[in-house]
Amino acid sequence: MSDIIRLLPDSVANQIAAGEVIQRPASVIKELVENAIDAGAQHIDVLVTDAGKSSIQVIDDGKGMSETDARLSFERHATSKIREAADLFALRTMGFRGEALASIAAVAQVELRTCVEGEELGTKLVIAGSKVESQEAISCPKGSNFCVKNLFFNVPARRKFLKSNQTELSNILTEFERIALVNPNVSFTLYHNDAELFNLPAIQLRQRIMGVFGKKINQDLLSLDVDTTMVRVSGFVGRPESARKKGARQYFFVNGRYMRHPYFHKAIMDAYEHLIPVGEQVSYFIYFDVDPGNIDVNIHPTKTEIKFENEQAIWQILAAAVKETLGKFNAVPSIDFDTEGMPDIPAFESSPYAGIQPPKTTYNPDYNPFNTSAVPPSSYSSKPSRDWEQLYEGLEHHSSAQHIQKSYPDDGDYFTAASMEQPVTPTLYDHSEEAAMGEKSSQHYQFKGRFILTSVKSGLMIIDQQRAHIRILYDQYLEQITRRQGASQGMLFPDIVQFPVSEVPVLQEIMEDLSYLGFELTDLGGGSYAINGIPSGIEGLNPVELIQSMVHTAMEKGGKVKEEVQSNLALTLAKAAAIVPGQVLTNEEMNGLVDGLFAVATPNYTPDGKTVLSVLQEDELEKLFK
């Protein structure tokens, strides 16, 4: 039997490693910029062309590399950060596994120019697909200059699955922001297609956050700082009134490294319990400084998942620190019973009505209502009538003609039908039974301001009015996008919506679909847009929050397929414009809603899969009264 196990060639092994480390252009920028920071750079320039698909250039003023180091840096597991296994538990640098440059060179064409301080000449190295094409001495400034071109040129399948330029640029900006937020002492610039997107000087942390996300965020931040023997926690948390459903800036950093940590996120959200509405989020920028021996950063290829030795204890410290910050800055609402400084209430004697006497009543103490011969009180002008039956004339007729509306005083809701007290088992309406809706009742009943009850051939139909409206509006908006026939209503006073740099590419990607919905936006520069028109029928909604919500939805869902982005936009707008639970509807409005629901192709479910209606079968109703 012949041997079948063989060692992979280095070129193939490097491509496999690159699949874990280099997933998109943003991964290249992350690795190169982190290496520059490890090299002691004080200024870093990032230049990107076509969202990194054509070229990525990272220039730093760090310590640079010698000719030998430059060549070795592209070998697998070649690193200056560790010498033995024990060093893995005392890491203070970003890169340490020696995979980044080897992985980049395996799937791209790389040119490196580097020079060590004090040397007259530096080194130029050209590598493509892990193969060294040339190496020569050149004159260049101190530091390193990496130029990465044609990413995934030798892996067509990987290149084909890259997203649109706007999506890839958004990923690049996200990685860039994470690095910039944790290194305020380093100045950065970022250019895309020769246009400057970021120019961040070395500055204090709070000013760096403002430089990345805009000055407006400053008013929402509360500073936090607590130092214990186990961990130091510092940074900023958002004020409760700045909470939002989407788009909150939430960042954790440990020892200068960005991380995701759902457990610590819950600690912060628990501190805001009862301070913000359910489902909303606040921004936070939390920085942990711990002993490197108490964390493990090597459990994930991108090092964004980090394991802590004392997670529960740090959770308690973090939660207490956030609560203390909220209390210190009076972010927690309180009731003030202090009456000092309140105006005096004038005495009754000083009132202009002091001379007015209260009314007095008179009565006859000798009057006996049971003595028929007694004289009535002097205040009565005539003897009271004894024909008491006349007082109730007409009440019997009024009672029989009265509407049978029943009021429930416990919750104030009304239900114009008999109360159903016993449990029932409703079923979904079978849309194939067209005859059922053909005999639907023209009279509908609203229950608890949420459900519409109507009679159909098979029984009693119960419809969730909000979900039904979402279903109808979604189909309308999606058709407007598809047919490019959205009706717009001009605004007398245009609103201004501001986006951070990382969200602008996403907005530009969905701008065309927004215009089909009826939004008219004008680019004012610097991430600001004027809202000149909104879709007809959404009056009363906040257009700024609505557009921001749609951009954040597009960021969360991604833009793999244009149809998916369009569907997400239509659904977001439908949810915002739909009627709310508790809204009272007239019978004509309910009739229009029911007719509109059954005019769509799939009335049973909302676009995101929630049940719209159920039918209580007639035999189920009969069982209730046996």
Automatic annotation (TrEMBL):
GO terms for cellular component: mismatch repair complex. The keyword NADP does not apply. The keyword Protein biosynthesis does not apply. Gene3D superfamilies: 3.30.230.10, Histidine kinase-like ATPase, C-terminal domain, MutL, C-terminal domain, dimerisation subdomain, MutL, C-terminal domain, regulatory subdomain. Keywords: DNA damage, DNA repair. GO terms for biological process: mismatch repair. GO terms for molecular function: ATP binding; ATP hydrolysis activity; ATP-dependent DNA damage sensor activity; mismatched DNA binding. Residues 443-585 form the MutL C-terminal dimerisation domain. Residues 209-327 form the DNA mismatch repair protein S5 domain. Belongs to the DNA mismatch repair MutL/HexB family. This protein is involved in the repair of mismatches in DNA. It is required for dam-dependent methyl-directed DNA mismatch repair. May act as a 'molecular matchmaker', a protein that promotes the formation of a stable complex between two or more DNA-binding proteins in an ATP-dependent manner without itself being part of a final effector complex. This is DNA mismatch repair protein MutL. It comes from Phocaeicola massiliensis B84634 = Timone 84634 = DSM 17679 = JCM 13223. The gene is mutL.
